[in-house]
Amino acid sequence: MRPFGMRHFRWFLIALCFFGGVGRLAAQKSESAVSVAHPALPGEGIFLVFPFENVGSAPRLDWIGEGLEELTIQRLSAAGQQVFSHTGRINEMDRYGLPAFAKLSRATMLHIAQELDADYVVFGNFTSDGKNLTVNARVLRVSPIALLPVVKQTGQLASLMDVHANLVWRLLTTTDHGYPLSLAEFSKLQRPLSLAAFEQYIRGLMASDDEVRLRDLREAVRLEPDWPDPAFALGEVYFQRNDCSAALTWFARVPRAHESGAEALFSIGVCRLRLGQPDKAEEVFSTLQENLHHSLISGADLPEILNNLGVARARQGNFPPALSALSRARDVDPDEDDYPFNLGLLALEEKELATAVTHFNDAVHREPDNPEDRAFLIYALEKLGKKAEADTERAAAGEALGEKGLPLLKLDTKNPDPLTKFQRVKPKMDTTSLRLELEGPRVQHSSNPESTVSTDTTVAHLRRGRQEVVAGRLDAAEQEFRAALASDPHNASAHRELGEIYRRRGKLDDAVNELELSLASRDSAAVRTTLARIFLEQKKPDLARIEVEKAVKLAPHYAPAAELLEHLEKNKPTGGAQ
């Protein structure tokens, strides 16, 4: 999966608005089991939170730094603010080759925030002697750039939860002097948690050993039986182990209104497919799709949901609706090869060999290094009686994959559904790649005009443009991105988004121009990798190599760049000038 363009931004806590149609605040209220009159909030900015640095404290208290990040995310969200998740931050750091727990400069944090179009960065440090705790936190405003004053809170370590609640409330009042909630009102919105349960939960998330992780998370559940977060984390561990029986038990404990509810339900659907229950899987994915349309923007789709819905229908022999879902998934995500591949399998099931060739050829074009895509293309050509074309593809596969790189397909003709085992089920819902402004443009009506995003700012145009991309309205999206550039001609994000639109339309020269303008404003391994892919489509491997080498140098741990460079190295011409 190539994480750029549309999918790079598909991430802004989609689960928070999947159920109920009332947004993240209602979800949080249902979890905290409290009732408080909530004044109309100002048009909040989007927050990006980093771990708090342990300065001088014992290493055994390192968990507090991660805990303060997670707790800040939860409490800002519970109070109605929009906050990037821990996973989203980690994924963005990976694009820059930064370790997840690296100590970052303010400039680097600002750069990451700009890439994510965040409005505020929250960071800080803490110190503790094991009995007392001091936490220092700051807010870095992204535009216009300003470092707000330090907020300091002290207290006993045993009172960390109260200390932190006071700290976050003070951060909000520092960010927006017109913040309408009193400390008491803010505190009532927060879910009461014991420090012991929270510590076990954070230690479980940080554990590198599965058994330790399971032990700590189970202890968190024992201490806070009604808290969904450790239950979801336990479900994730068992899901990764492919122990669906255990995973289903834990995922079932996550309420649908919880911020992880949609992800839990998606995983339940995947488990139903793994357990051979396509009818139950279809019900799950249909529910997700309906709620996505109901709660988000008109026409919005997530290809992972559509793909798995199509697979569930295909396994029940419902081919027309399966074709509809898979075709939409293919159109929404123009890079992923799994969707045309599954369409190819569907065509084979229906004995439509020419159609199958078209789909498998599309899959190969999207992912030239996938041996299975090429094997099925050759298989479909041979079944269609096009031996010469099959031989040509086999030779091309040998050049691309090596002499023994092409797998031998073994279809069990005794099996009534021999192609089922080849179907590709998406195991995760990608909530870390597509940025959505779930509640629409935010109107500025706070007493602090710098604390909000108006409907006419560059950021507002970018967010609306991404909504239009998700809904498949590229003309409207292009208008929004051009409006963003009208107010900020050097905006890297707007140029990048226009480049992606041109790429999807096949206007590769225009796409290259926009991506180069984006790079002129802000360097990015993801942009350079996409530019390299376009150069490959234009049969310019030398230019592609230059860009991908720069991407790898910029972000050595950015997997798509490393994989593309490996592909280029493997296919480098030998014995002559290059």
Q: Radius of gyration, rounded?
A: 25 Å
> Low-confidence parts, pLDDT < 50 over ≥5 residues?
1-43, 432-453
CATH topology of the domain at 34-190: Rossmann fold
Distance between the termini: 29 Å
Measured by DSSP, the beta-strand proportion falls in 5-15%
Measured as a percent range, the helix fraction is 55-70%
Characterize the largest beta sheet: strand count, sense, and whether it forms a barrel: 7 strands, mixed
Estimated structural class: alpha/beta
Q: Number of DSSP strands?
A: 7
CATH architecture identity of the domain at 34-190? 3-Layer(aba) Sandwich
CATH superfamily of the domain at 34-190: ABC-type transport auxiliary lipoprotein component
CATH class group of the domain at 34-190: Alpha Beta
Description:
This protein has helices spanning 23-32, 63-78, 86-95, 106-116, 160-175, 183-188, 195-206, 210-223, 228-240, 244-251, 261-274, 278-295, 303-315, 319-332, 338-349, 353-366, 371-383, 387-401, 458-470, 474-487, 492-504, 508-521, 525-537, 541-554, 559-570; strands at residues 46-49, 53-54, 82-83, 120-128, 132-141, 146-147, 151-156. It starts with 22 loop residues before the first helix and ends in an 8-residue tail after the last helix. Helix 14 runs antiparallel to helix 15, helix 15 (338-349) packs antiparallel against helix 16 and helix 24 packs antiparallel against helix 25 (559-570). It contains 25 helices and seven strands. Strands 1, 2, 3, 4, 5, 6 and 7 form a seven-stranded mixed β-sheet that branches. The protein has 578 residues and is of the alpha/beta class.
